[in-house]
Specification:
Layout: H1 2-26, H2 37-47, H3 50-55, E1 64-65, E2 76-80, H4 110-116, H5 119-135, E3 140-142, H6 165-180, E4 185-191, E5 204-206, H7 209-216, H8 218-225, E6 231-234, E7 238-239, E8 242-243, H9 248-258, E9 264-267, H10 275-280, H11 309-316, H12 322-338, H13 353-366, E10 368-372, E11 422-426, H14 451-459, E12 464-468, H15 494-505, E13 510-516, H16 539-549, E14 553-558, E15 573-576, H17 584-592, H18 614-617, E16 627-629, H19 638-643, E17 661-663, E18 667-668, E19 672-673, E20 678-687, E21 693-703, E22 714-723, E23 728-736, E24 742-744, E25 749-751, E26 755-764, E27 767-776
């Protein structure tokens, strides 16, 4: 009987399988999730009408484009990033839709991620934010941004990954892979040359081919070739007098032909200007036309888009080739099958404890200890008060010699600072919301822990924490301190706020000044650039008086840009704490009190003054309103300062720890290499202090003789190593000919010339520990 039953069941199973197989064979190929993507694309394309093809290449709302309902092809939904998933907005307006379930975890700004110098953190970031996007049913995340930090005045620098093309190239790839493993496309932006907000909508960037290929394109190239990005966003500006969002050289020749990009080119919002150029010059999806890209818009304009009815009219009249349209549609369909119609697409998660932990971990690794003379940090709350790195040590180390004019030599590990019983926190940024404002990266946070709240929560009743505002910025809509005040209540009493803070500083064991920039216009904010390198709101005067009143003053800068520090020699301890999102306060507190040993390093140079920056020294910036000429050429950031033998305030790659690290002598496995060969460079690194910590070992290459001008040295490898107190490890770097090459415009190719090269290994661009020579033959 059992055999009969089993036989019947087996027969039913076989029959069911046969029916399913037959049904799958009968259904359209594009509905078979196991079919090859290209087969699915071609099947759908063959079934679409001309009107359906045109419809899917332009927006239908602020952040979506149509699918093909007749064929079951879903819509595409975009979300601003790259630091969190934007709150839902009205279909045809910029203002919020007032949903109650769209409050996200806000991750640290990308300057902080770059400051971790840790590709594992980049992967964690991408995976986490991708999960949030997927849960919210967004299939395109508008990020990450990888525009190069050319000037410290750029209002959107906080959204990017610093001044060095190699660092940005390595950090962007894991982010993209993390996002896309969730079935969400990473849309890398802003391609290309969007390095200022002033006149961004029309400025024409003039630069050499060397600067284009060596400085401004490498991160985008890595995002496409190594990261496999499924989408890229065209920029607002012009290049060779064509707008970047429909630029034949950037999009057709470089991106699609040379790099083999098979994804979609999405216009920035309002960056499309001409139907024929949008058709022929590489744009695939048009968004935000008839807007200013941020706030103003012409309602219900979607049929008027350049790639909407005007394009359809040209197609119907036979004035443009339908094969160009088909290429755009293929790219959009490829996006759909990689995301919303992909097999086994995960469901994602939103606002989870895991994402909060990811945000905090990234923030902790990115905070940079710029200076720590006399061991003011970590602040001790007494024996057993804290645990982890630095607990009970009360130690700090100063900057290494050569790290910059702002750095001194500290007291070293073992310097005791005493137990803090009264802690004064000063500064509006200790309580100011930083997850809102700043333009398109403004977010509706599930929560935001301010620095003051983070400090109070960690300290508990082990010390008295008092707060003095010290200074005040003008209030702006939707952006104020967490204990919101009425901006019309009274005029700002600058002198009174300052005097109150200084008086309270005299009786404190330690003063934590938390200031810097904010997301107001002309600070770190889209749509406008800063007007000065200086701190706003008379903070310099406040800092100077605070340190006079209490020499145990720590200055904590929250910003996405370098700032001038006229008080740098008087202040013993300085931290760069970035815009660190939901967990900003918790991460900062854990660094201040030694639960976390800081290990971040700067992804861009802090110049002493604005004129030390290449864009401002030889220019030009911001241009004449029509053109901006990048006369600084390939000499951006540390490349410019080293060329001119100018000391920075704090060097690219600089960052201290609560422990110390010793470097051995570098060695090579061979003294010469052929073009098809590689060379391995090794160096021993030891944690010579009493605290566990991490060091970022950096390798730079110097070409000793070249037919074209080259930088003094360029970053070509790095590795972050975590070492217990007393632990030693060997760090190895493998270098091939690509690390020795430069772009030769006469050959339109990357070349490496025979001769002598140096590999310089150090703790920053200005703190080189060992040098080895080798030959390329």
């Amino acid at each position: 009987m059992k055999r009969i039953i089993f036989g019947v069941l087996a027969g039913v199973a076989i029959a069911a399988t046969a029916i399913a197989t037959t049904a799958m064979a009968q259904q359209p190929a594009y509905l078979n999730p196991q079919a090859e993507i290209e087969d699915r694309v071609e099947d759908v394309l063959s079934r679409m009408t001309l009107e359906e093809k045109v419809a899917i290449i332009h927006a239908q709302s602020k952040f979506s484009s149509p699918g093909v309902p007749r064929l079951g092809i879903p819509e595409n939904w975009m979300s601003d990033g790259p630091h969190g998933i934007r709150a839902e907005v009205m279909w045809d307006e910029w203002f919020g839709a007032n949903w109650t379930n769209d409050s996200c975890i806000v991750f640290p700004a990308l300057t902080c991620l770059a400051a971790t110098w840790n590709t594992d953190m980049s992967l964690l970031y991408g995976k986490s934010i991708g999960e949030e996007a997927r849960y919210r049913n967004k299939n395109v995340l508008l990020g990450p941004g990888v525009n190069i930090y050319r000037t410290p005045l750029n209002g959107r620098n906080f959204e990017y990954m610093g001044e060095d093309p190699y660092l940005a190239s390595k950090m962007v790839v894991p982010y993209i892979k993390g996002v896309q493993q969730n079935g969400v496309a990473a849309c890398v932006k802003h391609y290309a040359l969007n390095n200022q907000e002033v006149d961004r909508g029309e400025i024409n960037v003039v630069l050499s081919d060397r600067a284009l290929y060596e400085i401004y394109l490498p991160a985008f190239k890595s995002a496409i070739i190594d990261g496999g990005a499924w989408a890229i966003m065209g920029a607002y500006n012009q290049y060779k007098n064509e707008f970047a969002s429909h630029n034949d050289i950037l999009l057709n020749k470089i991106l699609k032909q040379n790099w083999g990009f098979d994804g979609v080119v999405v216009s920035d919002w309002g960056a499309t200007h001409n139907t024929e150029q949008a058709i022929n010059n590489g744009l695939d999806m048009e968004f935000g036309s008839w807007t200013d890209g941020m706030s103003w818009n012409k309602s219900n304009a979607y049929d008027e888009y350049y790639l909407a009815k005007p394009y359809l009219d040209l197609l119907r009249a036979g004035k443009t080739d339908v094969s160009i349209l088909d290429d755009k549609v293929r790219r959009v369909l490829r996006l759909v099958f990689r995301t919303t119609m992909a097999a086994n697409r995960p469901y994602g998660s939103f606002g989870s404890p895991e994402h909060s932990l990811a945000a905090r971990t990234i923030a902790e690794e990115g905070i940079v200890l710029l200076k720590n003379d006399g061991g003011v940090l970590p602040v001790s709350l007494g024996v057993g008060a804290v645990s982890g790195a630095g607990a009970g040590v009360g130690a700090g180390v100063g900057a290494s010699v050569g790290a910059g004019v702002g750095a001194g030599v500290g007291a070293g590990v073992g310097a005791t600072a005493g137990v803090a019983k009264k802690i004064l926190v000063v500064g509006e940024n200790a309580v100011k919301r930083m997850t809102v404002g700043g333009g398109s990266s403004s977010l509706k946070a599930k929560y935001e822990t301010s620095p003051l709240d983070g400090i109070k929560a960690l300290v508990g009743d082990r010390a008295e924490v008092i707060y003095a505002q010290g200074y005040e910025s003008p209030a702006v809509k939707e952006q104020d301190v967490l204990d919101a005040k009425d901006p019309d209540e009274k005029e700002i009493d600058v002198v009174g706020l300052r005097s109150q803070a200084v008086e309270q500083a005299r009786g404190a064991d330690v003063v934590l000044f938390i200031g810097g920039l904010n997301k107001n216009e002309h600070q770190d904010c889209e749509g406008a650039d800063r007007t000065t390198l200086s701190l706003p709101y008379e903070q310099d005067a406040l800092i100077a008086e605070l340190v006079k009143a209490n020499p145990r003053t720590v200055v904590i800068i929250i910003s996405g840009n370098a700032v001038a520090m006229p008080w740098v020699k008087d202040v013993p301890t300085i931290l760069e704490a970035w815009y660190n999102g939901s967990e900003a306060g918790n991460a900062l507190a854990r660094v201040i009190f030694g639960e976390v040993n800081p290990s971040g390093k700067l992804p861009f140079t802090f110049p002493v003054k604005l004129e030390d920056n290449g864009a401002h020294a030889v220019g030009e910036y911001p241009g004449n309103g029509t053109d901006v000429n990048y006369k600084d050429d390939i000499f951006v950031g540390y490349r410019f300062l080293e060329k001119n033998k100018t000391l920075p305030l704090f060097a690219f790659g600089h960052g201290l720890s609560y422990t110390t690290f010793g470097y051995g002598k570098a060695s090579v496995d061979k003294t010469s290499m052929a073009r098809n060969d590689s060379i391995t460079i090794s160096i021993n690194v030891k944690n010579t202090g009493k605290t566990d910590g991490a060091e970022i070992v950096q390798l730079y290459i110097s070409d000793k003789k070249s037919s074209l001008p080259r930088p003094v040295k360029e970053l070509k490898a790095f590795k972050k190593v975590f070492l217990k107190a007393g632990e030693e490890t060997t760090v190895r770097f493998v270098i091939d000919v690509s690390a020795l090459s430069f772009y030769d415009p006469s050959q339109s190719a990357w070349v490496a010339e025979n001769g002598t090269f140096e590999a310089l290994i150090g703790a920053s661009s200005a703190d080189i520990k060992s040098v080895v020579k080798f030959e390329l033959k």
